[in-house]
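Re: the request from the purification team.
They wanted to know what the chain is likely to look like in 3D before they choose a buffer screen. I agreed to run a prediction and write the result into the notebook, where they can find it.
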Amino acid sequence: MIDHVSLGSRGFEEAIQFYSECFAPLGYQLSHRTTEEAAFGPDGNRIFWLYPVPSSEAVVGARAHIAVRADTQEKILRFHEVARQRGATTVRAPGERPDISPDYFGTVIRDLDGHTIEVVHWSK
C-alpha cells in the first residue's frame, strides 16, 4: 500500500495554490506547509506532498503519473473544471473509458509543472 506521493515544483507557491483549489472538490486540504514542503490530504492527512525544485533540476519523468480516487463522478468534473481554470491542460477529458473498464470514469490533466494527474471513480 502506498503511504504518500511527492512531486517537485519550480513554481512552489503557484503549485500550492493550484492544488488547494483543484483538490477542494475531492475533499483534500492543505494540511501542512513550510517554506520547504507542503502536504495535502483528507481529514488532515498528509498524502500528497510538494517540494520546491531549482530550475537546474529535472522535475518530470516520462510516463509517470499520480492517480487520485474520487467518490463521485461529479467531483471529477469539478476537479477538471478548476484545474483548467487554473492553467492545467487536459490530457484526457472527463468521461467513461470502456477500454479501461466498464466501471471507470476519470480525467487526466497536466499541472503547471507538467506532472500528469489522473482522478478516477470506480462504480464498483
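For the purification team: Residues 5-54+63-122 form a domain with the 2,3-Dihydroxybiphenyl 1,2-Dioxygenase; domain 1 fold (CATH 3.10.180.10).
Please add any questions underneath this entry.
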